[in-house]
């Protein structure tokens, strides 16, 4: 299942759903806590008619879209979805920002391809490395990434310094994006 989602052609079709996703949800509280949860939620649907245009829709998203957490706090990354996801820290420059970038996110040299390679996704679609931690232990810099299987959760320490804002994206569904504000 994961393998088919990493294909650039599927990503290109999924982009049609970007408009339906809407804006980024804000955290309810403006106060950073020691524990926070980011949830991958939503649904992907498709309709096919032979020799007609296929329709793909997705309301998959991260909620909340902006998370406030204290340095040293525990972040729970949870999936309520039936699809696999990644929770991947990236730079602003790496985030797909328009339809063309979303359409091509699985192409060589793109952030989705980089994440796929880092997780060592095999021909069967399964990642050999479900967790990639490039800096200090925990979530602290671009390159840190977690594969989230359907209906599962993981916990990680946010080790980034207070005052840091980290951007995250799903490398499978690149319209799923958000911010982790470390206080």
SSE topology sketch:
Blueprint (H helix, E strand, L loop, with lengths): L1 H5 L1 H7 L3 H4 L11 E9 L2 E4 L7 E4 L2 E3 L2 E14 L5 E6 L8 H5 L7 H8 L12 E2 L12 E4 L4 E5 L7 E5 L7 E6 L1
Parallel strand pairs: 1-5, 5-11
Antiparallel strand pairs: 1-4, 2-3, 5-9, 6-8, 6-10, 7-8, 10-11
Provide key terms for this protein.
183 residues, nine-stranded mixed sheet, alpha+beta, single chain, 34% strand, 16% helix, Immunoglobulin-like, two-stranded antiparallel ribbon, disordered N terminus
Task: Tell me what you see in this structure.
The chain is α+β, with helices and mostly antiparallel strands and 183 residues long. The protein contains five helices and eleven strands, in the order αααββββββααβββββ. The chain has helices at residues 2-6, 8-14, 18-21, 99-103, 111-118, and strands spanning 33-41, 44-47, 55-58, 61-63, 66-79, 85-90, 131-132, 145-148, 153-157, 165-169, 177-182. The strands form two sheets. Strands 1, 4, 5, 6, 7, 8, 9, 10 and 11 form a nine-stranded mixed beta sheet that branches. A two-stranded antiparallel ribbon has the order 2-3. It is globular and about 55 Å long.
- Global geometry: globular
CATH topology annotation: Immunoglobulin-like
Number of domains: 1
Low-confidence stretches: 1-27
- How is the biggest beta sheet arranged? 9 strands, mixed
Return the structural class: alpha+beta
Helix content: 10-25%
Radius of gyration: 16 Å
CATH homology superfamily: Cupredoxins -  blue copper proteins
User: How many strands appear in the DSSP assignment?
Assistant: 11
Order of helices and strands: HHHEEEEEEHHEEEEE
Percent of residues in β-strands: 25-35%
What is the average per-residue confidence, as pLDDT, rounded to a whole number? 82
- Please, how many helices? 5
Which CATH class is shown?
Mainly Beta
């Amino acid at each position: 299942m994961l393998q088919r989602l990493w294909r650039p052609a599927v990503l290109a079709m999924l982009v049609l759903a970007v408009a339906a996703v809407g804006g980024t949800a804000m955290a309810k509280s403006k106060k950073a806590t020691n524990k926070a949860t980011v949830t991958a939620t939503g649904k992907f649907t498709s309709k096919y008619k032979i020799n007609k245009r296929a329709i793909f829709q997705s309301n998959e998203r991260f909620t909340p879209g902006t998370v406030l957490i204290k340095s040293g706090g525990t972040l729970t990354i949870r999936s309520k979805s039936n699809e696999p996801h990644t929770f991947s820290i990236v730079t602003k420059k790496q985030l797909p920002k328009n339809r063309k970038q979303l359409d091509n996110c699985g192409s060589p040299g793109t952030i989705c391809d980089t994440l796929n390679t880092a997780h060592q996704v095999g021909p069967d679609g399964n990642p050999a490395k479900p967790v990639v931690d490039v800096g200090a232990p925990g979530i602290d810099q671009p390159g840190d990434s977690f594969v989230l299987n359907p209906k599962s959760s993981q916990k990680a320490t946010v080790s980034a310094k207070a005052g840091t804002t980290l951007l995250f994206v799903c490398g499978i569904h690149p319209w799923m994006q958000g911010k982790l504000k470390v206080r």
